[in-house]
Amino acid sequence: MGFARTCSVALVGVEGVVVEVQADLEPGVAAFTLVGLPDKSLIESRERVRAAVVNSGAEWPQKKLTVGLSPASVPKGGSGFDLAVACAVLGAAERLDPRELTDLMMIGELGLDGRVRPVRGVLPAVLAAADAGYRQVVVPEQTAAEASLVPGVSVLGIRSLRQLIAVLADEPVPDEEDPREEGRPDPLLAGLVVPGTGAGAGLPAGDHTPDLADVAGQHSARRALEVAAAGRHHIFFKGPPGAGKTMLAERLPGLLPPLSSKESLEVTAVHSVAGTLPPGGPLVHRPPYCAPHHSATMASLVGGGTGLPRPGAVSLAHHGVLFVDEAAECSPRVLDALRQPLESGHVVVARAAGMMRMPARFLLALAANPCPCGRHGTTGGGCECRPSSIRRYRARLSGPLMDRVDLRIAVEPVARSELVALGRGAEATATVAARVQAARERAAARLADTPWQTNSEVPGHELRTRWHVQPGALAPAERDLECGLLTARGLDRVLRVAWTAADLAGRDRPTLDDVNWALELRTGVRRGAPTAAGAGGLTRKPPTAATSPRGQAQR
């Protein structure tokens, strides 16, 4: 009779659960039983492990073999348990010393020839192992760099089961062929990417980022884009086709500061589980950008799928930008699913196989046309849509969803003079990003002793009671609240945008101009006195009779 145990990790969403892998050998008819709530792919590990052990030069025990995965109540799936199962069996057969396996964490899939194949989710698995107190981890060589991102953990990257047996038995380690040295493609990397997602879905491709200097005109939209990046405020672009809504949204990630160490680990863990982490780039340093098609389903947006849910677009955009183009063409039910993660910063998906909590703190950018044909309100547009069609089209963006959007910008068609003047006076992304970084640092210094980092995260009660605006500056917003033009949530969001405007202008607290500007960005109605100290130093024109609140009321 022989017994041995080692450990592996079961992933539930982006969180790991330490699983003890136990192997027991007893006299009897040769059989291999796997228990502990395994799924189909894990049940098939019996054949993979048997062939890998034999082809690695070890003897397969001809006894009654039982392998248990504990705790048995946690659903377990995937092929990442193969390496731990094989070593537990060899320990029970006394080919390896069982005492050498007890404190080891093993993650990896086995090929029939004994090679160790990489699996997804190595980073969150190693994070869970480190939290549980494990300090030695064995992973496939291709994911050793990803596992090494976790501090305080000794990582051993191996290519085959033969190498691991030699290391644990204190024998000479055999050399294994590396296809990368011979210039051949490595088929083992296929296990790191989910088919159909692409290697870098949601992540910046290469070092090139779209430059804001390529955008002609759109001064108000550019200024709102800067505010959105500085305070992480959600933004909505409305305008006719070809006005530049998508161009502006694509340049928003370039304005965001680089990810901190903690944020990089969180983003990398999500993309590792989702199978979108590009090989050779184990750590994500730049904010992700995810732009799902307007026909995306609920499961693809917030997470889901058969069995245990998988991360959706809101999680792939964690600490980055989620851009929903043609928002009015999306299903209203799918769009309304964004309301909860916009407030909480995470999404909880419940399915019959289990419940999963995934991070989803993203900056939302919406874009839509003014009507089905897109020409309503444009000069010489010739819109032929019926008023009822326009109302139904705009109603697809629900009030509760839009109440969570801080900035609403009308993107007008670009004039010929602005197109001709392209490149003269247009600020580049690096210039605007420097101002955004400075504003973020001012906000971080003010919020140093709090759990918040940006203005959009601060509760309205704290802003009203702990950090005060200039006397009388909040009066216009309070009047809009009394008139029903603003909700209580809307008032808080106006206050947050005003603080961001003050940070961009280098002021200690918001002024009346900052509050008026925040109201203008939220309602689209110009108000207040002109100022020359707006974001980026841009000046605003004084309100005319047609654009002032009084002029609007008279019309």
TrEMBL record:
Family: Belongs to the Mg-chelatase subunits D/I family. ComM subfamily.
Comp. bias (Polar residues): 545-555
Molecular function terms, GO-annotated: ATP binding
AAA+ ATPase domain sequence ranges: 231-415
InterPro entries: AAA+_ATPase, CHLI-like, Mg_chelat-rel, Mg_chelat-rel_C, Mg_chelatse_chII-like_cat_dom, P-loop_NTPase, Ribosomal_Su5_D2-typ_SF, Ribsml_uS5_D2-typ_fold_subgr
Residues covered by region (Disordered): 172-193, 528-555
SMART domains: AAA
Protein name from the UniProt record: AAA+ ATPase domain-containing protein
One Pfam family in the UniProt entry: Mg_chelatase_C
Lineage top rank: taxon: Bacteria
